[in-house]
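Table S7 (text form). Paired inputs.
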Amino acid sequence: MQPIRILIVNNDNRLLAGLVTALEICPDIDPVGTATNGLEAMGLCQELDPDVVLMELMLPELDGISAIQGICRNQPHIQIITLSKFLEKDLIRKANQVGAAGHIRLGDSADSIAATIRDVYHRTPQKASSP
């Protein structure tokens, strides 16, 4: 079985590096890229075609809600999980309305983050695998 390919989007480079390091130890999760803003995330989704995107909501250049809308419109098979430091209920609700499938609070354990990724990935229809 192929690992779950994830793109992590956050404008804090230290946090990005920490998430990548934490998730690289999971044999079934493959962090394939990182982005620091919504525009970069949309471009990398086109280029890398990840299975799951971990998306911060408060981003420069293009906010997370707008990026989620664009990704869901252009690549509806990509599942999106929101990331936030605080429980921003209104933003999370809005993200869910435009297509986010889950939420991770920054500060959750690596095991909890990995479990959420697996849950969202496995409860959604998978794209056809390449020959």
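Next pair, protein 2 of 2.
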Amino acid sequence: MDGYKLEMHLHTSRNSDCGKECPADIAKIYADAGYNGIVCTNHLNRNDLYGYVAPPWKRLFRSIPDCWLRDLLELKEECAKVGIDVFAGAEVSPDEVTYYKPDHPYAEFLMYGITADELRENCERFLTMTQRELFEWCDSRGIVLAQAHPYREMCDVMDTSLLHGIEISNTHPGHDSRNALAVELCKRTGLIPTGGSDFHYRGGEGGGVILPRRPNDERDLAAILRERRHEVIFKENEQD
């Protein structure tokens, strides 16, 4: 496929407790796979931020948000060496939908178009927001808010009127995200379709989107998604 190949869903080892690869290794993996860019969408929930990221390393950083952002910044440096762009992003699970509470609903939201500075300033605040508050915050800034893998086991489909997009192709090899259902939901609602590998370890790369051009920065990426001229990458033989 011609165009700009962009990973839209990726986790690193020191910022998501389920991620297994460090920035230097990710740079090599994605260079070998022919990617032009990556959106780094590390988990942002209370467990990861305060239970996994902060305790071992917070003494080395000015703040917990700075600690949480370190892999994004290192990934930018490592990927620049091999000609791959890296854009800020996040997979946010506010307290009202986090998996670390006893009852449903459970969900995660992908943020596209947000800058590293905005994440630094607001990442702790996002945890206390309702879906409406998060959507309105993103909408007022031109940021695209998409629900990740809405039909995966344990997940609940959230209010689609408070979303800009739906992840219709999640190619994580260890999960059945029931992408066909997400495709149908996207068609019914008219939301922006997105896709990503949900990368956690070597061999999990392969998903994402093909853009018509290179984004200039995070906001430009969001603008391109809103134009809907991108192509979502599906698994081989998967119906879209």
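The beta strands are 4-7, 37-40, 43-44, 85-92, 109-112, 144-147, 165-170, 192-196, 208-211, 231-233.
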